[in-house]
């Protein structure tokens, strides 16, 4: 992920739909810190909370790897859009926030 989005993990994978067509699937997960040593031997991604799962169906690719790369790229675009939307919402709420009353 690009700078500023290190807290997200995007995984892309592909599922064959037939005759060169693939379903490009992706997951956006919250990055989990594995520094504490408690997760040794855990399956990759099993401790990362799922934030969003998406699919693009009927895409034509020569191989599964190309479809998986396209899925990851689609997931990164979706993650960027969702983070930008949240930033805009937070900024809008902050700008329109009414100051607290001055009652003691």
Largest sheet: 3 strands, antiparallel
Counted beta strands: 3
| Mean pLDDT metric | 81
Rg (C-alpha, Å)? 19 Å
- Give the spatial strand order of the biggest sheet: 1-2-3
Q: How many DSSP H or I helices?
A: 1
Q: Helical residue percent?
A: 25-40%
**What is the H/E string?**
EEEH
What's the shape?
elongated
Enumerate the spans where pLDDT stays under 50 for 5 or more consecutive residues. 36-43
State which percent range the strand residues make up.
Answer: 25-35%
Query: What class would the helix/strand composition place it in?
Result: alpha+beta
Question: In whole angstroms, how far apart are the ends?
Answer: 47 Å
- Count of all domains: 1
Summary of the model, kept short:
The protein is an alpha+beta fold and 104 residues long.
Commentary on this structure:
With 104 residues, this protein is of the alpha+beta class. The chain has one domain (8-95). It is built from one helix and three strands. It has a three-stranded antiparallel sheet with strand order 1-2-3.
